[in-house]
Structures are given as C-alpha cells and as structure tokens.
Design brief:
Blueprint: H1 21-31, H2 37-43, H3 49-64, E1 68-71, E2 75-78, E3 84-91, E4 97-100, E5 108-110, E6 123-127, E7 139-145, E8 150-158, E9 161-166, E10 175-177, E11 190-197, E12 205-214, H4 221-229, H5 238-245, H6 253-256, E13 260-261, E14 268-271, E15 280-286, E16 292-299, H7 310-318, E17 322-324, E18 327-329, H8 334-340, E19 348-358, E20 364-375, E21 378-381, H9 382-390, H10 395-403, H11 407-428, E22 438-442, E23 448-453, H12 458-480, E24 487-489, H13 495-507, H14 520-529, H15 536-545, E25 551-553, H16 577-603, H17 612-622, H18 627-660, E26 667-676, E27 679-684, E28 690-694, E29 704-706, E30 711-713, E31 718-720, E32 724-733, E33 738-743
Parallel strand pairs: 10-12, 13-20, 14-21
Antiparallel strand pairs: 1-2, 3-4, 3-6, 4-5, 6-7, 8-9, 8-11, 11-12, 15-16, 16-19, 17-18, 19-20, 22-23, 24-25, 26-27, 26-32, 27-28, 29-30, 30-31, 32-33
C-alpha cells in the first residue's frame, strides 16, 4: 500500500517497498536541511522494522552511488553533482592523500581519516568543498575503480591471526591473510598475495598467498619486491615460451629469401661488458665521392612477433625491458631476446638496415631502409673498441686482427665518422649534460660490494651518435610517408621551472640565455662555461631538473634536448615496444612500395584491377594502426617506460641502503644536492650515495627555509645547493629505502 500519494514506491520486486530515490532526494529539497535516518523514516511515515531496514539499505546505496553524503555529526545531505570530481589518488606515507584530476588545476587534498580503505592509484570520486575555505573539507564519496590487485610483504602472526606487513609503505590498512593459503609459507618470509576482499571502513583487507618470495636477505629480493610493488611479472606463461621457441635458434633458408644480403660486410656489435641482447650492429665505409656510408642494422623482431599474436600482446603489455642491478626483466622471452633476434657474433640474423650517406660536415644527405641479412663479424665491448682507437699496437688489436683483419680498420673508420658527427652535434646545439653514471658491483648474493663511476669513452659516444642518426632518419621516413607513428618528443622547459632555475643560477652568479624561450644551444653554452667549476655537477643537475620529460607522442613535436625537428625510436626493438611498432611501419611501407611496383608491371598485363584489394589487405595486416590506436600506444609506452625507470631506481635505492647499513655512525664529506622544506639532500663524496638531513635536526637555531632561493638560513648560517658539508649517517629505513644524516659539528649562533 502506498504511504501517501506523492511517494512513489520502489519496484514491486521488493518485499517491503518504500519510496524511491527520486522522492527521497526531493524530501531534502523540501526540508532544506540535513536529515538523519530517523528523521527520514518519520517524514516517510515508515513504522515497521522491515521498512526501516529497507530504508537503511536504500540510503547506503544512495551514499555508495554518490547521491547522498553521510557523517555521524551531520547525518545525510544531498550532493550537488556539479561539485563531484573524479581522479587518481596518490597517498602519502603519513596517511593523507591528493587526488589528481586535471593537468592544470591543483591536486585535491584528502585527509587521512577518509582514506583508511583506499589504495594508491585508485580512481575515486570526490565532493569539492563548495565554500573553498578549508582544504580538508573535500570529501571522498566513493571508489570508482580499484587499481591494486596484489600486495607483497612480510608474513606475520598476531595472536591467532596471520597478517601481511605490506612492503608498500603507502598501504596503512591492516591486511589479514586467509589461513587456507598458508601452505609452504612461514612467518618472517616475504610473500606475494592476491586481494580477495577490499577494505571498508569496518572491515580489513583480506588476501590469499599466491607466491612465496623468500627471506628478507635472499638474493635478488630487492628486485622481486620492486616488480611486485608495481604489478610487473618476471615469469612467462608456458604458451609464450612455446611460441618463442617454435622459431628455432637459427634463421631458416626460407626466411633469408627476398632480403638484401649484407653478410660479407664486416658488421660489428659494440656494447657493455654485461650485455646479452644485441639490438644493433654497425658498418661504415668511404664512398668514391668522399662521403661516408653508414649502415645501422637493427634486429628484425617484427619478422617473428606479429601484430596481436600471443608474444605481441605480452610485449605490448610490458612495453619495455626493465634493467635492474644484476638482473634484466626482458620484454620478450630469452629465446628471442638473447637468441634468435640478438645479433650474436658469427650467426646469420635478420635485420632492418638504415643505409645512410653522410657528408664531411656530419649531415645525412640520403637514407633508405631495407630488409637485410647480416653475419656479425665480432662482438666488441666499449672498452675493446676504445682500445683499438687509442692504442693500435696492443695485443688486443693483434688478437682481433688475427680473428678478422677487417675489424680494426672498420673501428677506425667508425671513429673518424663519429668525429664528423660530433662536430655537427655541437653546431646543432644538442645538450650534452655528461652526467656521471654509477656501477653497482654485486656479489653472488646480489648485494653491493662497491660503487664506482662508469667511464664513458669515445666508443660509447660513437655508437650513441650512430643510433641518433638512424632514429632521426626513421622519424623523417614516418613524416615523409605520413604514417601514423610513435614519435619520441621532448618539449622545452616550462616557465615555472625556468623561473626557479634562473633564480638559483643567479645565486651562483650565472645566467641562462634565451629569455622566456631558451634553446638547447643556450643550455649547452652555459654547460660549457661551468666545466671547470667545483660545483659543476650540481649546476648540471639544476639544468637537467628544469627539463621536461621526454615521452612518446602520435604527433611530431620535435626533440628540444637533442635539437631535432623529428625524432623517434628505431634502434632497440628487442627491449622497447615503440621501436617494434616503428619497424612494422617501415616494413609495411617497404612491402607497399614493392606491391606498387608489381601492380605497375601487372597493369600492363591487364590484371591490375584484380590485385588492388590485395594491396590494402597486405598493408593493414602488416601495420594495423591508425592515429587513435597510436595515441593510445604512445600513452601506454610512456607510462610503462616511466614505471620501468621507477622500478630500477627503487632497486638501486634498496641495495644502497642495505650496503650503507654497515656505515651507520660514520662521518662523510658531502655536497648539498637538493634543498626542500623537509631538509637538505646530500650526496656523499666517496660513492655518490644520497640521503636526507631532516630539517628538524638543524632548524632549532632559527633556521628558515626560502623556497625561491632553495636555501635554509638564519642570521649567521646559510645552507644552499652545492655547499660542502660534513654529515654523519644516523639511520636507515630499509622499508622506505631512505637514509637519514645529521650535520656534523653544527652550531647556530
């Protein structure tokens, strides 16, 4: 029976029908105030327990769906849809968080009390504070989409319960482990778990153990945890391994057909000491006209990995190989990445070749692409190649010459070409930050034994320049043929970052030219002027931090840092999915050109009309991408690339913390490498390890932070970027992968 004429009942399928949602919402409009459940029940004249229970569920559902908001103090209130915002939550280790919902607006602050059931990365709906008086008045309404599926951590016991202490410090919730999943696991071990029940305000997270990782100090644990923290697998499904192995370990005679045979050209690979997957091989020679002919041969992964097959779908999801100290998580199974696709010495391999003519000014005058077949004559390291260049009479040179007499002369030619290309680079104004890389030397347990700088010689730079040439020619190829492709773009610095940079440079008596729009040449000019300064590395870091982040894009927007109008990635299809897509574009265009030539011949035979449909099918099959799919891929590849870098950094930080644990209490000389409201970031002289001197440890003497000048100072003392300090290692948080230092012998007056 209807309670009164204006209150339409819910669907008759309910046992105890009550007025519907629209009527309940209209009730708030009439009453013009917040209402608790009892007041709503009274207004609707609901008397029996069944109807009141139905109302309770109805109100909870309306709260869940963002129609009503509830608080213990104020009761229910209607939500203004215009104040609802959706975005991705980022959590702070102290419990509060921020919702990112726009690229131009400030992130929304959400207090800790509202986030006890939320995970990092969840998509949430937030009700904005209409008065905009307090940032803590924003209200989290609901979780739209969960982004966390697995949690890794240490298995602990609390009374009769088993709990997971999550490795992720941004997971403050209690996590209960279902006891039915405890088989083969022990308290104190790291485990990976799958969430079976997400938390609510009233219920803890429930998980099941899916994988036992091992004890905290097990070899490679830092990498295992970082991968699982980001939801990345280091395992392969059997179907993927079967598919990768099905090609065998040698190029078949059938696959060699219809390819340009470069096997008599003495191509060589030049890579690091520990490299196992060889994407690129190079060869160059002088032409009769006095120009250089440079051939860059890149592994033809696209011949084996076809669009939308099982290997392609997995490679697309991974999008990149991940390089961690002591371990590589490849984009493709090793049967391909280290085997059939790797340009191993003295093996026939399928390649895409970028064949370039380069004049004495270091400019590429002509380039074309071919599907080729090579036979690498040597696998050289950077140090070996550099020795051939600088010390021609060593035993190494003699040994290499005895093995293949064509290799030493080739290396000298390659270096001569590099000299021309390097001059062109300087003239172009490409930025050369020349940052110092570090090598972490690991023992058999994959723990650091020492940290040392990586020496970059001309062989490193030589190969880098050759790859840049090939990448530029590829970008121009995509542009010329109007192929939707993945360009690698790098925007100029943003005005906010420029303002901060100029302020900091002024403190050091330096100036960056170019006004509001400096070019890469302006950056390079400043870099050249500071090379002899003691704080050169800090200034380089400042200049680097002012840069935008390079990313993939469907539109060719140029590359600021390299000073190129067009740039893409072509040279690493074994480890980057973007390069694999680019290879497909090139091969599709080569096939289309061959098909067009065939059609012109066949048109004379009056069979042209019968073949036109075959052409479009071939091109679409070889390159099934339109602008929209390329835009989607560009965002995905950019995201995965950033994730891979983050994983690598986290593993390095964890290993460094473990290594430095033995030095707690020791004092070091260091340089202030960063300044923020939280304190001073310092870099140790001995091994370039970084840590934080918290502000709470030195600001008792009236020390105040100046954000614009990036300084902490009082009447007598100032701490700024580049300052030399003495610090003592106070503590290490292995879970957070952070080190805390104290300034030594510090006195404020």
């Amino acid at each position: 029976m209807n309670l009164y004429p204006t209150a339409p009942l819910s669907s008759p399928i309910y046992d105890n029908p009550i007025p519907g949602r629209e009527f309940i919402l209209s009730l708030f409009g009439k009453m013009k105030k917040n209402l608790n459940r009892e007041q709503i029940a009274h207004a609707l004249k609901l008397s029996n327990a069944e109807q009141k229970e139905a109302l309770r569920r109805r109100l909870r559902a309306m709260e869940r769906d963002g129609q009503l908001m509830f608080s213990q103090r104020k009761g229910y209130q209607i939500i203004d849809p215009s104040l609802l915002i959706s975005g991705v939550i980022t959590l702070h280790k102290d419990g509060f968080g921020f919702v990112k919902f726009s690229t131009t607006e400030k992130d929304l602050f959400i207090p800790k009390t509202q986030l006890t059931h939320v995970f990092e990365g969840d998509v949430v709906q937030v009700l904005l504070d209409a008065t905009n008086t307090k940032r803590s008045n924003n209200k989290l309404i609901k979780i739209i989409e969960r982004k966390t599926t697995y949690l890794a951590g240490i298995l602990k016991r609390q009374g009769k319960d088993y709990v997971l202490v999550a490795d992720n410090t941004k997971c403050p919730q209690k996590v209960q482990v279902e006891q039915c999943s405890l088989t083969n696991s022990s308290v104190g071990q790291y485990v990976n778990t799958k969430i079976t029940q997400y938390p609510t305000f009233r219920q803890a997270t429930q998980v099941q153990i899916t994988e036992v990782l091992g004890l905290p100090h097990s070899a490679g644990m830092e990498t295992k945890l970082a991968l699982r923290r980001h939801g990345v697998s280091d395992n392969w499904e059997p179907a993927l391994l079967t598919q990768a192995s099905s090609f065998g370990n040698k190029v078949t005679e059938q696959d060699k057909l219809a390819r340009v045979d470069y096997r008599l050209f003495p191509f060589v690979t030049i890579d690091g000491e520990d490299a196992k997957d060889f994407d690129d091989a190079v060869y160059c020679e002088r032409t009769e006209q006095g120009d250089w002919r440079l051939l860059v041969a890149i592994a033809d992964v696209s011949h084996y990995v076809k669009p939308d097959d099982v290997l392609d779908l997995e490679a697309q999801q991974r999008a990149t190989s991940i390089y961690c100290p002591g371990q590589v998580i490849p984009m493709l199974p090793e049967a391909l990445s280290n085997g059939l696709c790797s340009l191993n010495p003295h093996e026939d391999r399928l390649v895409l070749v970028c064949d370039m003519t380069i004049n004495s000014n270091g400019h590429v005058s002509q380039a074309n692409f071919t599907e080729g077949l090579i036979h690498s004559h040597a696998r050289l390291t950077y140090n070996q190649a550099h020795t051939i260049i600088t010390e021609p009479n060593t035993n190494l040179n003699k040994k290499i010459a005895e093995s293949d007499a064509s290799v030493p002369p080739l290396i000298k030619n390659l270096h001569a070409l590099y000299v021309d290309l390097n001059e062109a680079r300087k003239h172009r104004g490409a930025i050369d930050f020349d940052t110092q890389e570090l090598k972490l030397n690991l023992n058999k347990n994959q723990k650091i034994t020492s940290i040392e700088p990586v020496e970059r010689n001309d062989a490193h730079k030589m190969i880098e320049e050759f790859m840049l040439c090939a990448n530029v020619c590829t970008a121009q190829f995509l542009d010329k043929h109007q192929i939707p492709g993945l360009f690698r773009v790098h925007a100029g610095p943003q005005q906010k970052k420029l303002f901060l940079l100029r302020t900091l440079l002024a403190e050091k008596g330096l100036k960056l030219g170019g006004g509001d729009k400096p070019t890469s040449a302006h950056y390079n000019k400043l870099l050249n002027t500071i090379s002899s300064r003691s704080d050169a590395s800090i200034i380089r870091t400042l200049l680097l931090r002012s840069q935008s982040q390079a990313e993939y894009c469907a539109n060719n927007l140029g590359h600021f840092g390299l000073a190129y109008d067009a740039y893409t990635h072509f040279t690493s299809p074994i480890r980057r999915y973007a390069d694999l897509v680019t290879h497909r574009a090139i091969r599709a265009q080569i096939k289309a050109k061959q098909q067009n030539s065939l059609q012109r011949v066949m048109s004379y035979l009056n069979v042209f009309a019968n073949k036109t449909s075959a052409k479009s099918t071939l091109c679409k099959k070889a390159y099934p991408y339109d602008l929209q799919s390329i835009e989607t891929l560009s965002m995905h590849c950019s995201t995965q690339s950033r994730k891979a870098n983050e994983i690598s950094r986290e593993v390095e930080s964890a290993l460094k913390c473990s290594y430095m644990n033995q030095y707690i209490g020791d004092t070091f000389t260091a340089t202030i490498s960063g300044v923020s409201s939280t304190g001073l970031f310092v870099e140790l002289d001995t091994n370039s390890v970084e840590g934080l001197v918290p502000a709470s440890s030195f600001n008792e003497g009236g020390c105040v932070f100046n954000a614009e000048k990036q300084q902490w100072r009082n009447d007598t003392k100032c701490f700024a970027l580049g300052d030399r300090v003495s610090v003592t290692l106070k503590s290490i948080d292995l879970r957070e992968r952070k080190m805390s230092f104290l300034l030594s012998n510090l006195t404020f007056h």
